[in-house]
Amino acid sequence: MSALSRVVRSGVGRRRVQTVVIALATLMAVASAVVAGSLMVASNAPFDHAFAAQHGAHLVAQFDPAKASTDQLKATGRLDGVTGSAGPYPVTTVRPVDEGGGHLPPVTLVGRSAPHTDVDRLNLKSGRWPTKAGEVVLSSGFEGPALRLGATLHTSDAADSTALTVVGFAHSVGETADAWATPAQVTALASDDTRVTRQMLYRFDSADTKAQLAADRRKLTAALPAGALMGTESWLDTKRAADRSAAPTIPFLMAFGVLGIVMSVIIVGSVISGAVGTGLRRIGILKALGFTPREVVRAYVAQALVPAGAGIALGVVLGNLMAMPLLEDTETVYGSASLSVAWWVDVLVAGAALFVVAVAALVPALRAGRLPTVEAIAVGRAPRTGRGQWAHRAAGRLPLPRAVTYGLAGPFAHPVRTLAMLLAVAFGTVAATFALGLTASLNAVGSAQDPEDRAPVTVFTGQPRSGPGGGETATADPTQVAAAIEQQSGTDTYYERTQTDGTAVGVSGAVQAVLYDGDLRSASYEMISGHWITGPGQVVVSTHFLNTTETEVGDTLRVTVGKQARTLTIVGEAFDTSDDGLRFHASLADFPTVQPQMFLADLRSGVQATQYAMKLDQTVSALGGQAIANSPSRQDNLILVLDAMAVLLTLMLVSVAGLGVLNSVVLDTRERVHDLGVCKALGMSPRQTVSLVLASVAGIGVVGGLVGVPVGFALHGYVLPKMAETADTGLPKAVLDVYDTPELLLLGCAGILIAALGALLPATWAARARTATALRTE
Amino acid sequence: MTQVIELSGVAKRYDSSGAPALGPIDLGVAQGEALAVTGPSGSGKSTLLNLVAGLDRPTSGTVTVAGERVDQLSEHASARFRRERIGMVFQFFNLLDDLTVADNIQLPAQLTGTARRKAAARAGELMELLGIQKHARTYPGRLSGGERQRVAVARALVNRPALLLADEPTGALDSASGHDVRELLVDLHRGGQTIVLVTHDPALAEAVASRTIHLVDGHLALDTQAEAVR
Predict the structure, then answer these.
(1) Which residues in chain A are contacts of B75 at CB distance < 8 A?
(2) How do the domains of chain B map onto residue ranges?
(3) Is CATH 3.10.20.310 the right assignment for the domain spanning B3-95+147-229?
């Protein structure tokens, strides 16, 4: 073994604590950089990647089995331009009822014997594929506390409805269905009320534009008897919707990604340069023994690279492990599948970390290599002069215990190290502040969801119609339904609602008109500006609607519903992202010929929605209507997932910040071990020693908090509107103003907490260090 | 006469298989006595001093200082004992470079919770006594070796300790400064201060100490008091 190797090995082995800290800090920094990088990659065109991986269907077509035979449908897979096909599968639409009696939205149920086919290779996320009648696999979007493996669904309210046990959750990027059962099971559901048709999935050699897909569709139509093709769904529409829902999360992931990467660089840089900087005396001795400056530099860079290399290797592994659950969450958010850490992210992060380590070690090592030998030895042992003495004088005047004031002045002796520690604490606080704000905002978005979803009970004036197209057949008299609701005990308030096609000047094509009557307050959306409709003559629209029609609150809007055209005043801008935000909300009174489709009832506190709905249904079903309790499974997965991601990412960044502090305090404590020994010899107790070390980071914690909280606050104020901007919506005050003063003050304490947690371990070491040994330390 | 230090069967081993670094020895030091501990390097002088100061614990035997069983004290109690009963002077001064002379001297008083004004008054009194008052706001790095050692002595005396321990107090000084410190210790002894002085310097031992013990390989090879009795 060469002399240089021996020096490196002994250097790594002798300072075990520092070696472990370097390895740990690089491990955490690299792990967070891998996670951050993976998330940033995952947010780049996620739909396209997942669609390609699943061999998604460019066109989902529905055929009338009465007009085209199975052989005829299979033959369409061999048409010119068709590169892949799957099916025909039996398909129907059901409105399942969960175990609690809640109704799920209409579900497209497809009969498939296997998840992996030429087209639309489903990602079976949990459970197994149905093998017999009575089993169903649901789209992973349904998975939640209310719908889990083993849960039972009924295909309708009818007493003789089919029970289906949930045996798995799967994901189709192209959204070809909401649920899958065996073909025999789906076929068996056919009845007078439930129509079963056929589904075919196609891939084409050219399907990048609407025109190409229209041409492909024409080929299918031409190849089959007239009227056989009932309808198609284009992958471009699914992609547009997926991109729209994914877009708001990109600034969020970018913010965390950038925070993670910047923090990793700071921590690795400060840890390594600090470690090399404290080895100056040893460097002097090596030079005195005849090592050349170049050998010294090589020795110290290598000495940093050994533990850092181990940390980097383990960090890449840990990063991949940590990224997996987060990427699974990202899959849910993006509706994509099989996302994994890109190999090049691992290579890039590891390479960049090695580079940062090498540069961070090289700078102080070069300085040490250039130092004259005598000076290098002296730097390690001569009394420090000047730096930070003024701080000790000032701190000594504070009316605090001496151990505390002595500690408070400590950071001023090492301004660069203190700055690195300050940055680590500040970044940790930024992450905590941002994440808390983001979580609160996302929860506020959740509470500001469509009021229709908030109502515990919905009363339809018609019965839902099964089969493609769904919809209701209106039969009940709204006046009688309203009377039934009013007479039902437990009713608090209710309002009437109808959603129908309409038009608006400034928007090409149809828009959705949502019309209300009754107690309008309960129907109110969160408002971005203006107010909710209070009566006739008023209209409320979304930000996207205002932008599309180039109008603003206070302007008038010419709208048409059926044959009734009205000029209404825009009285408010609502936080409404449904139907692409292209719908308007107005009073039913302005359109007297339109009948309400549903009543939405709020219940008095303590009233059970399911029991209320069952009781009311007995009355309204006699009138031709239907009352149902809404299923709690209608939860916003995106919000839950983003909440979870924010918590995980914050914990990771705060841990990295804590490790940065730990490293700096370890270096400081080691440098000051002799001074601490003197203090202990003079009678400083272990408790006073701990308070001295903790006080040395308290100031950094306070300043880090003071810097981090406003920056985190500002980041939240920047990222949230960006997220909203990508979704073409403004944000109501309830979503933006989520911080209150006590919360901000508590967040300010996060800096102190990070600093104190990082310093606690070295403080305990300092308190336990043997005084006699410390006194002998040079 | 009251015993300030009582060592009974005290031995210290750093390595369980090797010979003891010290003892077993029995030793008593009376109040007002100035004891010089001499001996070659590795003879156990510093070990003896560390045991008396409560910085280390004996492997066997008991150490009683100013009526307190030092060998049984917890870390916290040992720290409290040192700041209240012991003053220490080191060969290399061990002053804190980032504190002024006055702050260095006041530090042990402040650790005991003495009010700042009272600690400052006591420090001023000692600086005047030791002739270093003009350096009150100076940092130790700018003082000569002799001046630094005076500061160290002032710091050791600030809490009026029952016992002053001095480990080679002139070992790092030139002869003029060494002479000054020697005179200072002589004066302190004359004033009734109990002193244990570890030194290689026979002249210092002779000038300051009323009694000398000589250690060789951890054992008491000579005790002038015993010789006198004999």
Answers:
(1) 685-686, 767-768
(2) 3-95+147-229
(3) no
Nearest chain A alpha carbon to B46: A772
Q: How far apart are CA A570 and CA A558, in angstroms?
A: 10
The reply to whether A682 touches chain B by the CB within 8 Å rule is yes
Gap between the Cα atoms of A764 and A766, Å rounded: 5
Q: What is the pTM of this model?
A: 0.67
The distance in angstroms from the start CA to the end CA of chain A is: 29
User: Do the chains contact at B82 and A681, CB–CB below 8 Å?
Assistant: yes
User: Alpha helix (H) ranges present in B73-223?
Assistant: 75-85, 101-111, 116-130, 145-157, 175-190, 202-208
Closest CB to A393 among B100, B107, B159: B100
Q: Which chain A positions have a beta carbon within 8 Å of B80's beta carbon?
A: 683, 685
CA distance to partner chain A, nearest, from residue B74 (Å)? 10
Q: Which helix (H) or strand (E) holds A313?
A: helix A293-334
Strand, coil or helix: what is B10?
strand
A267 touches A103 (CB < 8 A) = no
- Our CA angle for B176, B179, B184, nearest 5°, is 130
Task: Among A248-257, A303-312, A604-613, A657-666, name the one with the lowest average pLDDT.
Answer: A248-257
Which value does ipTM take for this structure?
0.83
CA distance A583 to A576: 9
Q: Residue A130: what are its φ and ψ, rounded to 5°?
A: -60, 135
Q: State the alpha helices, DSSP H only, in A476-587.
A: 478-487, 543-549
Phi-psi region of A134 (alpha: psi -120 to 50; beta: other; left: phi over 0): left
Q: Which residues of B touch A680 (CB under 8 A)?
A: 79
| Distance, C-alpha A776 to centroid of its chain | 54
Contact list, A674 vs chain B (CB under 8 Å): 94
Express each pLDDT in A313-368 by its tens digit: 998 898 888 777 777 766 665 555 445 677 888 898 889 888 888 888 888 778 77
Give yes or no for A687 touching B (CB within 8 A): yes
> By CA distance, what is B96's nearest residue in A?
A675
CA-based nearest residue to A598, from A674, A518, A690: A518
* Among B50, B110, B155, beta carbon nearest to A402: B110
A171's tokens:
């994901």
Q: Do B108 and A682 touch (CB under 8 A)?
A: yes
Inter-residue contact A31 to A322 (CB < 8 Å)? yes
Interface contact A775, partner B, CB < 8 A: yes
CA distance A220 to A87: 14
Q: Closest partner residue to B88 among A385, A675, A681, by Cβ?
A: A681
- Chain B neighbors of A383, CB-CB under 8 A: 97, 140-141
pLDDT at res. A249: 63
Is A378's Cβ below 8 Å from some Cβ in B?
Answer: no
User: Cα(A674)–Cα(B98) distance, rounded to whole angstroms?
Assistant: 13
A716 DSSP 8-state letter: H
Round to whole Å and give the CA distance between A475 and A462. Answer: 5
